Amino acid sequence: MRNVFARLNKKNSKSRKSANDPKLPLISAMIFALLAGAMLPLSLSPYEWWWFALISPAIFYVLLNNRSTKQAFWIGQSYGFGLWTVGGFWLYTSIHVYGDTPMPLALGMIAFVGLGMGLFNAIQAALYRRFFGHSPLTFAPLWVFAEWTKTWIFTGFPWLFAGYAFTTYQLDNFAPLAGIYAVSFVVIFIAASLIEIARGRLFWALPSLLLVVIAVGLGQVQWTSPKKSTPLTVSLIQGNIPQDLKWLTEYQGETLAIYATLSQKEWGRDLVVWPESSIPLFQADVQPFIDAVAKHAAQSNSAWVTGIPYAELNTYNPATNSYDEFYNAIMAAGKDSHGLYKKQRLVPFGEYVPLSGTLKWVLPSLKNDVSMTSFSAGGSHQKPLNVKGHRLAAAICYEVAYPNLTRNNAQRSDFLVTLSNDAWFTGTDGPWQHLQMVQMRAKENGRWFIRATNTGVTAFINPQGHIERMLKQDVRGVLRGDLPAMQGSTPYMRFGDWPILIISGLLLLLGGWVKRSSSPRRR
To answer: Is 457 inside a domain boundary?
Structure first.
């Protein structure tokens, strides 16, 4: 392996001196990087033009050749800015339309998010040029670490990963083996290798082809299997409550009536699921309604799972007439069913607003909307919901974007369930990008994913990450399905992200060592 690195580094050193490999002026390179970054979201849902997931990083890879560390930083910043302002523009709807923020200020906030998230690519590019030779074997591992850090720095915003472009497109077969980061590694490695092949370095065709062959082979492996039991009959209720009405006091009764009415013909099925915050009141404020629905479900031999804001009653503060601790939660009730799950990861702007006290002058709706105040975070290692002898591992809304969190919750589960309210982002790409992440989580863990949402996309996703059935967006309706419980574990469930992180780390250590040992020594 060291000889491979050394040989490639030597060739790349020669190419840097070649007149046939000129550099663009920095400003031109930054513009091309901006456009390349803006391409990557087109590879994701709802477009799914997967080839852009190869073209976009390939252009980025080319633009970094022969660059200084400082130049690489600004090229990376431009790439990341293009990626996030286009791919994350769905935030504009929640900030401007539902946050009552003036358009210029809302656009400025989107640009600020783009600049902040662009730093990940900027630092990635700077480290790449400073410490490593120009090679797919170091470019791909650094990309993986850039994506991985997005899951935990500043609470995390794990979005727009390159690997999601290949959900259901063969390369996702690496997901149950080593997770989304392994898929991204393969995608980026192939993208960079295509550039090397175009430069006449045909050596890179072999490992790229080998990875594709391995992916096809992994697709034949069944990591998990259905239990020998009767499939669970499930009904998902999509109430389609507009976001501007959902939390209004005068509309709360109507919301409860809509869900109760839609569920009338579903009692008698094994499980009836309502989406996130379908009950727009704390449990203490609506206990008679909860008791009545739970009793009706039990009498019909049904389980009932619903999203609800859950307040810890012992934290009630008379001075403020509010609870000091309250959670975005999922509860299970009905026949032989129980459990409460409290959301663990609170994602900025989608679930809560950082510095909300300071930003209330920017987002006036914060003053009146409980869904836009800061929820408390639930503890780790919560038990699955118990539903008629089955264990449902839960995730709420954007929490499902965190691969390792979903993996931890999925341990010893029969099904995965996620409840969401994407009404904040109606008419944007956000709900579709979100759904694609759920598909990847199903593939990683080898479980059926039950997804109930307020306005869409409500769906049943099989253990291969394929959508079996779904409801249209922005309609009021019911989705029914018969789902087998799954058993067994994927390698990703057992080992998590460590294998791909360790492999990436070793490649970077070796690549950095080879570059230092092959660099001319100063006397």
So the answer is: yes
Catalytic residue among 343, 351, 399, 443: 343
pLDDT reading at 522 higher than 60: no
Range of the domain at 463: 225-489
Structural contact between residues 57 and 143, judged by C-beta atoms closer than 8 angstroms: yes
CA dist 8 and 133 (Å) reads 8
Closest CA to 46 of 98, 8, 90: 90
Q: How far is CA 479 from the centre of its chain?
A: 23
Same domain, 205 and 240: no
Do 390 and 513 sit in the same domain of this protein?
A: no
* Nearest of 470, 471, 483, 411 to residue 444 by alpha carbon: 411
Three-state DSSP string of 25-50: CHHHHHHHHHHHHHHHHHHCCCCCCC
Indicate if 267 and 218 belong to the same structural domain: no
Across the beta sheet with 415-420, the strand order is: 467-470, 459-461, 449-453, 415-420, 390-396, 385-387, 337-342, 326-334, 303-311, 271-273, 232-238, 477-483
Token digits of residue 391: 């264990």
Asked whether residue 232 falls in the same domain as residue 156, the answer is no
Range 345-362 burial, b when 16+ CB lie within 10 A, else e: bbbbbbbbbeeeeeeeeb
pTM of the full structure = 0.90
* Best CA proximity match to 150, nearest among 183, 178, 116: 116
**Count: domains in the chain:** 2
Catalytic residue among 147, 196, 266, 276: 276
**453-499 residue pLDDT tens:** 999 899 999 999 999 999 999 999 999 999 999 999 999 999 999 99
**Do 109 and 218 share a structural domain?**
yes
For residues 207 and 255, membership in a common domain is answered with no
Q: What CATH number corresponds to the domain at position 317? A: 3.60.110.10
Euclidean distance between CA atoms 492 and 494, whole angstroms: 5
| pLDDT per residue as tens digits for the range 349-389 | 545 655 555 555 555 554 445 544 577 889 988 999 999 99
- Asked whether residue 303 falls in the same domain as residue 205, the answer is no
Residues 503 and 355 in one domain: no
Output the six-digit token pair for 377: 């975070």
Catalytic status, residue 312: no
**Residue 343: active-site member:** yes
Spot the catalytic one: 397, 399, 444, 515: 397
Q: Rounded CA gap, 308 and 241, in Å?
A: 15
